[in-house]
Amino acid sequence: MTSIARPVTAFHALLVALMLGFLIPLSATGAEDQAVYTLQADGLACPFCAYGIEKQLARIDGVKSVETDVKSGTVIITMKPGATLHEADANRAVEAAGFSMGDFRKEDDET
Amino acid sequence: MTSRLAAVCLAFAAGFGVVSTTTAAPQTFNTALPVAEDEFVFREQFVYRKATDDPSPADRELQVLGGASVLGYGVTGDLAVFGVLPYLDKELDVTTPGGRVTRNTSGIADARLFGRYTVYKDNAPGRTFRIAPFLGVEMPTGDDNDRDNLGRLPAPLQLGSGSWDGFGGIMLTYQTLDFQIDAQASYTLNTEANNFEFGDEARLDTSLQYRVWPQELDAGAPGFLYAVLEGNFLFTDNNEMNGVKDPNSGGTSFFLSPGLQYVTKRWIIEGIVQLPVSQDLNGLALEDDFIVRAGFRINF
Predict the structure, then answer these.
(1) Could you say which of B34, B125, B219 has the minimum Cβ distance to residue A49?
(2) Which of A54, B129, B193, B290 has the maximal Cβ count within 10 Å?
(3) Apex CA B290: angle with CA B90 and CA B1, to 5°?
(4) Which of B35, B175, B218 lies closest to A45 in CB terms?
(5) Quick one: pLDDT at residue A108?
C-alpha cells in the first residue's frame, strides 16, 4: 500500500511544480500585456445607448471587454494580451454609435 | 366617419409611434428610436383603442386591438431606416334601422417604411441635442376591400387605405442623465384609392421622460425608471369620397398621456395611456375615449 502511495505523491508533486512553473509566468505575461484604455463618450445619457457603444467598440480587433459608466460617460476598454487600441479606431466606433469621443487615454495601472 | 379618423389616428399612432431616435424615446411616436451603425432595434407595441363618444344617434362603438412591430437598422451612426408592420383587429358596433349590428375585421394593416437622418448633433458629457428629419411612405399592404354579410366595409374600417401615402417631418431630442425631451412635427399626405381619400394629417408631438429611479446615479443600477408625459396634437383634414369632402370627418384633437418606461442596456418595457383632453371634430365624427399602449424594445 505504502509503496504504491509514495510514487503517486511524487508524481503529484512533480505535476504541481510543472503547473506552477508554467502558469505563473503565463499569468504574469497576460497581466503585463493586457492594456486598458479609457475614453469619454460625449452625448451618452442612458443605458440603452450604452449598449450601442459597447457593441461598436467590441468589434475592434483585440478588444477583450468593454464597460460603460453612464453617470460619468466613461468607457473602459480592456484589450487582449498584446493588443493595442488605436485612438482613430475608438473614435470611429464611438461615432458609429452616434456619439462623440472626448478624452482618450491608456491607463498606466494595467491589470 | 369616426372610424376613419380612428383608423387614421391608429395608423399614425402605430406608424409614427413606431418611428423613434436617441434613448428612452417616446411611446406615442417612433421617430426617436436610437440605432447605432450596423445594429438593429426592434420594438413591439400593443395598442388598445376605444371610441364610444358618438354625437350621432347611431351610438357607434369602436374598439381597435392590435400591435405594431417596428424594426430599425442603423445604416450609419446618423442614418437609420425603419419598417413598421401593424396588425389590427377592428370592431364597430352601430345601431341601424334594422337593429344593432357589429362589423369587424382583422389582419395586417398598411406598413410603413421611413428613413431618419441626424443633421445636427451637439454631444457633451451627460447630454445630447439632436435634430433629425425623417421621410417615409405608407404602403397599401392592408386589405382595403374587406366585406362582411352587410357588404363592403366602410373605408375607415378597412385595414388598409389602398393608397400609397407619404409622410415626413422633423424630430428634436434633448437628453440629459436626468430627463429627456422629444418633439416632433410631421405631416402625412394621403392619396386617393377606391374613390376615397383620407384627409391629410398634421401632428405635433412632445414627450418628457424624467428619471425617477434611481434618484442618485451609481454604478450598481441595472436600469433607469422614467416617468413619462407625452402630448399629441393632431389636425386631420376632411376625408373625401368621389371628390366630395365628408363633413363628418377630420378635426383637431389633443391627447395628454402619462406613462412609465424602464430602460436597461438591452431592453426597454413601457406603457402609456393616451387621454383625450380636447376633441374638436367635424360634424358627427366619433370621439376617442382612450388609447392604451404597452410594449417592449430590444437592441441586437
Answers:
(1) B34
(2) A54
(3) 50
(4) B175
(5) 78
Interface contact B76-A96, CB threshold 8 A: yes
**pLDDT digits 0-9 by tens, A18-70:** 555 444 444 444 455 799 999 999 999 988 889 999 999 999 999 999 999 99
pLDDT (tens digit per residue) in B203-223: 999 999 999 999 888 766 788
User: Cβ-count burial of B280 within 10 angstroms (0-12 exposed, 13-18 middle, 19+ buried)?
Assistant: exposed
Report the pLDDT value the prediction gives residue B24, as an integer from 0 to 100. 61
A-facing residues of B in 207-236 (CB < 8 A) are: 217-219, 223-224
Listed as ranges, residues in chain B with pLDDT below 50 are: 1-23
Cα gap A85→B245, rounded to integer Å:
64
Between chains, do B36 and A44 touch, taking CB under 8 Å as contact? no
Instruction: State the pLDDT at residue B22.
Output: 35
The Cα–Cα gap between A98 and B123 comes to 9
CB–CB of B172/B130 below 8 Å? yes
Nearest Cα neighbor of B51 from B270, B257, B281 is B281
How far apart CA B178 and CA A50 sit, in angstroms, is: 15
Which residue, among B27, B33, B37, B262, would best test binding to A if mutated, counting the most A CBs under 10 Å from its CB? B37
The separation between CA A108 and the C-alpha centre of its own chain, rounded to angstroms, equals 14
| Inter-residue contact B220 to B200 (CB < 8 Å) | no
Q: Do B34 and A98 touch (CB under 8 A)?
A: yes
Alpha-carbon distance of B105 to B3, in angstroms, equals 12
Mean pLDDT to the nearest integer, A89-100: 96
CA distance B31 to B21: 6
C-alpha cell of B214? Answer: 434611481
* C-alpha cell read off for B213: 429611479
